[in-house]
Design a protein that fits this description.
531 residues, alpha+beta, disordered C terminus
């Protein structure tokens, strides 16, 4: 009897130990799905809807064992010759489907020429007539891309969290293994292609590369607050990190908005710099040229709001919640930064992307017009607005001055040319062909690995759903800059930039817990042997 009591006690203790460890690691990872990206008939690219809903998606995490916990797993990976697993859904005339299939054939080669990709990216291409579709029949876009889910990571124990696209995360070393959801609908990038707008064009390789690059991380999440919460009287001239807000339409009782919390901006947006400030101070190293700072990023901790409100407002509780949100936003230390970025976003030649190689790639903005076009590279010439460009109207497209990163301009140019003909005309000296050096370096700055370079061996820490508000934010977000010189052209050279070294932190908590569990198991069996 004494033996059984002791055994039950020991087994209970063992199960408790396992339970405690499983509670630490069996958590949901914070992830969300951004909006679709639409490219209309004229090539203009934008978010599909005016209301910015970020649909939260849960991913589960599992513990890595002791042998893999400290490994840089990418060191042992082999770059793929075929980095894309493509699925075609052809719901239209075969002639259109064959054009897309033929255009896609050379896509893998262009990407593997520039990047080492270790884990396949799943792409679904849906080719159909939008006008005959129930879901797309009101849209005249040529292509609509559904980006991958974004998960929140940090690149050191005490680092700052940023949102990363799943396509990139699959290539990175993470402190926990992410359990991806299998199923028929499991794909990383989904592109709807409208046969109504394909016309007689045959060459869509550039278009497909453009949309895939959006899905690989050249995509923005920040938005004007008034776009996320329209018609509620919130500030109209600030651009804020993504807000988890969902609109539930109800014609009878009024639309309901479920507001939860702010999410970290993307790793892409982390690298935005103020071009006008660089020019003003002539690259003085005492200046910080990044648009966003710690005060801006602290919105995830400083502005806490969770409530449901209707439009129009129906109760005093809803009104008080909205007032509290406005008060918190106005008192937020990052408000001036958010306002400054809004002003820059409605000015030409104002926003750039700083690469780790020292280039500054100018992003697309227009004068006195907010378009949110910063997920495109600026043309070498200025346009009056998103829909009005005199130089393009008066000039044959084949004679426009293009640059090396033409594939990520905000419009589809030269659809009558093959990809090889475009490269020869626009930028014959590109090292990587269709993908200009600037595009490749934007990707590597976010975490991708350039072809033939050492793999990204940094260790990234996955943020769980309940961790965001309790993060210990200690490390500096940005390194210090040496002197910056401005040169002519779309790419602005930066002479020298000190980059932070990769984190050397270990899995202290994980190792402790696994050691603790091992001791418990050993102790349990030892007692069984004695008794």
């Amino acid at each position: 009897m004494k033996f059984f009591i002791r055994a039950r006690v020991l087994l209970s203790w063992l199960f408790f130990s396992v339970f405690m460890i499983s509670k630490v690691y069996n958590q949901s990872i914070l992830g969300f799905k951004p909006l679709d990206v639409a490219h209309d008939y004229n090539g203009n690219c934008s978010n599909l809807n005016n209301i910015k809903n970020y649909h939260i998606i849960n991913f589960n995490a599992s513990v890595k064992n002791d042998e893999t916990a400290g490994m840089n797993i990418n060191q042992s990976k082999v770059p793929l010759e075929q980095p894309f697993e493509v699925e075609y859904q052809c719901l239209s005339d075969e002639i259109y489907c064959n054009r897309i299939k033929t255009s896609f054939e050379k896509i893998p080669g262009y990407f593997t020429r520039a990047l080492d990709i270790y884990t396949p990216i799943k792409i679904r291409l849906n080719i159909f007539s939008f006008s005959n579709s129930q879901t797309r029949n009101t849209n005249d876009a040529l292509a609509i891309t559904s980006p991958p889910p974004y998960l929140v990571l940090k690149d050191s124990i005490n680092g700052w969290p940023f949102s990363y696209p799943l396509t990139l995360i699959k290539q990175l070393n993470t402190n926990v293994e992410i359990q991806y959801s299998p199923g028929e609908d499991d794909c990383d990038i989904e592109i709807d292609i409208n046969t109504d707008q394909m016309g007689n064009y045959e060459y869509f390789t550039g278009m497909l590369a453009h949309e895939i690059l959006h899905g690989m991380g050249i995509y923005y999440l920040i938005q004007p607050l008034s776009s996320m919460l329209p018609d509620f009287g919130v500030s109209t001239d600030i651009v804020v990190p993504p807000l988890d807000v969902t609109k539930n339409e109800n014609p009878q009782q009024g639309d309901e908005f479920e507001i939860k919390y702010f999410l970290p901006p993307s790793i892409y947006e982390k690298n935005f710099v103020d071009l006008k400030k660089i020019i003003k101070y002539d690259g003085n190293p005492s200046e910080n040229y990044h648009f966003f700072n710690e005060d801006y990023y602290r919105i995830i901790k400083d502005v806490l709001v969770s409530c449901n409100i209707h439009h129009p407002i129906q109760t005093e509780i809803e009104n008080q919640c909205l007032q509290q949100l406005n008060t918190d936003i106005n008192n937020w230390k990052g408000y001036p930064v958010a306002h400054n970025f809004y002003q820059a976003s409605i000015s030409q030649n104002s926003v750039g992307f700083l690469t780790q190689e020292g280039e500054i790639i100018k992003l697309q903005t227009y004068e006195n017009e907010y378009t949110g076009d910063f997920f495109h590279i600026s043309t070498p010439y200025d346009c009056e607005s998103k829909v009005k460009c005199t130089i393009e109207e008066k000039t044959d497209q084949h004679k426009l001055p293009y640059g090396p990163d033409f594939v990520m301009y905000s419009k589809y140019y030269l659809l009558d040319l093959t990809a090889e003909e475009k490269i020869a005309l626009c930028s014959p000296n590109n090292n990587y062909g269709l993908l200009g050096d600037g595009i490749v370096h934007m990707l590597t700055t976010m975490g991708w690995t350039e072809k033939g370079h050492p793999p990204n061996d940094k260790l990234y820490y996955v943020i769980m759903e309940d961790e965001l508000k309790t993060l210990n934010l200690v490390d500096s977000i940005y390194p210090s800059n040496d002197h910056i010189n401005i040169t002519n052209g779309n790419n602005i050279n930066v002479e020298s930039i000190h980059l932070p070294s990769s984190s050397s932190s270990n899995f202290i908590l994980q190792n402790f817990l696994w050691t603790f569990l091992s001791i418990q198991i050993f102790f349990t069996f030892f007692v069984f042997l004695i008794y």
